[in-house]
Amino acid sequence: MAHLVDPKFRRLVESNLKEFDYIQASTDGRSAAVAVTIVDSGFGPVLSGMAQFKVWQESASLILTRRSSRLRNHAGQWSFPGGRLEQGETPELAALREMREEIGLKVSEENIIGRLDDFVTRSGFIMTPVVCWAGNQKNLEPNPAEVESIHRIPISEFLRDDAPLLDPGDGPHPVLRMPVGDDWIAAPTAAIIYQFREVAVLGKSTRVAHFDQPKFAWS
């Protein structure tokens, strides 16, 4: 089912997030925040180098990036705009700052519409997903020092019947992946996408913090 970037869909997401009691991590770690941002599908190909989607211009999408291949950590991986909290920052302010720095998108605090559960990564970060509403946005500019490319992926793609994909991990819990086009996205980003789908769109109380990550995402 396709959702449009309109007031009706925003009200649905806000209502579902308001009813959701997100869990903050109780373990120690380096605090970070990511911006899970709802935007229109934009112009041109929705995905570069993957299967193309036929979507309406107003189709609600999530903004994801491919990290720069020059980065020391997690180079080339799928991610949400985000990074470490600076001194005195809340996760909300950090998510907005990082989004501005990485892809040139300015979103006001009034367009923050909720949180998802913290996710503790194998590399020692506590990631706080902050859900934002950006609506119709024409121009997004990748910061070449951090971002290889920007992708607007229709939310309908994350509602596929074959999602999520679960694989055996090195621990007691499976590794979670989310299929997209003919490719896939790995946890932790995939776990956040899956919880966004379950909680914000479908109104469920699905938890994802227990899912593992593939080894290439550990460091």
Features:
single chain, 27% strand, 219 residues, 3-stranded antiparallel β-sheet
Task: Please specify the SSE layout and strand pairing.
Elements: H1 7-19, E1 30-39, E2 61-67, E3 78-79, E4 82-84, H2 91-103, E5 112-115, E6 119-120, E7 125-135, E8 147-154, E9 165-167, E10 175-180, E11 183-186, H3 189-201
Parallel strand pairs: 1-7
Antiparallel strand pairs: 1-2, 1-4, 2-3, 2-8, 5-7, 6-7, 9-10, 10-11
Give an overview in words:
This protein is an alpha+beta fold. It is 18% helix and 27% strand. It has helices at residues 7-19, 91-103, 189-201; strands at 30-39, 61-67, 78-79, 82-84, 112-115, 119-120, 125-135, 147-154, 165-167, 175-180, 183-186. Strands 1, 2, 3, 4, 5, 6, 7 and 8 form an 8-stranded mixed sheet that branches. A 3-stranded antiparallel sheet has the order 9-10-11, covered by helices on one side. It is globular and about 40 Å long. The termini are far apart.
